[in-house]
Amino acid sequence: MSAAPPPTPTPQEPVEPQELLQLGTEVDEPCLRADAARNRARLLEAAARLVAERGADCLTMEAVATAAHVGKGTVFRRFGDRTGLLTALLDHSEKKFQAAFLSGPPPLGPGAPPAERLRAFGLAMLRRTADELELQLAAEPAAGRRFTAPPRRVLRHHVTLLLREAVPQADCELLAHTLMAPLDPALIHHLTRQCGMPLARLETAWVDLVDRVTGTRP
C-alpha cells in the first residue's frame, strides 16, 4: 500500500481587494441636493466648533441644533444619532488617511517593502489618533460593533495584506488583530493621558514590535 500524501496546508481566508470606503452618513445619500449639502456642512461646522470649544464629551444633538440655529429633529434626520454625528466629523480625516495608505507616496503608500509600510502605518495612526483623541474616543462603536465597523475593518484589512507579504507563513488574520491593539484610541488615551507616556515612546515601541514580528530592521 502506498503512503498517504502529506496533508495540504489550509490556505488562509481570502481578503477582498481594498477600496476606499465611504464612512460618513452620506453612504445612503450619495447625491445630496445643493441646499441639503450646505445644511449638512453647516451642522458639521457647528459640531466641530463645539468640540473645539467644549470637548467631544459635551457634544449633543441639541447643542449642535442650537449652534446651527435649526431644530433638533433636523440634526437627528441628518445623522441618526450622536454616534452618526461623530462619525461624520471623523469621515473627512478617515478618507484622507485611507487615500494615503492605499494610493499615496511610500512608505505609507504603495512602493515600499511591507515591513516599512507597516512601520509607517502605525506611526501615522498614532499621530492621527493623538491629534483627534477626544473625537475618536467619543465616536468609538459599541462593543458589539467595535471590530466590525467599516473604518476598523478597512484598517485591519490593510495590515493583514501587508503581513501576508512580510510573513506569509503566519496566521496573518489573527496577527493583524494583535498588531492593531496598540493603536486602539482607548489604550493611547490611557498611556498618554493617564500614564503620562510621551507619544515618542509609543512610536518607538511600535517600530520595535513591527521589527520583531516581521524579523526585519530598518
Structural descriptors:
mainly alpha; 10 helices; elongated; 62% helix; 218 residues; single chain
Describe this structure in words.
By secondary structure, the protein is mostly helical. Residues 1-28 have low confidence and may be disordered. The termini are far apart. The longest helix has 22 residues, at 82-103. The protein is built from 10 helices and no strands. Helices cover 62% and strands 0% of the residues. It has helices spanning 34-54, 61-68, 72-79, 82-103, 114-131, 133-138, 150-166, 172-180, 185-194, 199-214.
Q: Topology of this structure?
A:
Layout: H1 34-54, H2 61-68, H3 72-79, H4 82-103, H5 114-131, H6 133-138, H7 150-166, H8 172-180, H9 185-194, H10 199-214
Helix pairs in contact: 1-2, 2-3, 3-4, 4-7, 5-7, 5-10, 7-8
Helix content: 55-70%
Number of separate helices:
10
The main pleated sheet reads as: none
Low-confidence stretches are 1-28
Order of helices and strands: HHHHHHHHHH
Q: Summarize model confidence as the mean pLDDT.
A: 85
Give the tally of β-strands. 0
Main structural class: mainly alpha
Q: What's the Cα radius of gyration?
A: 21 Å
The percent range for strand residues is: under 5%
Shape: elongated
Give the CA-CA distance, first to last residue.
Answer: 53 Å
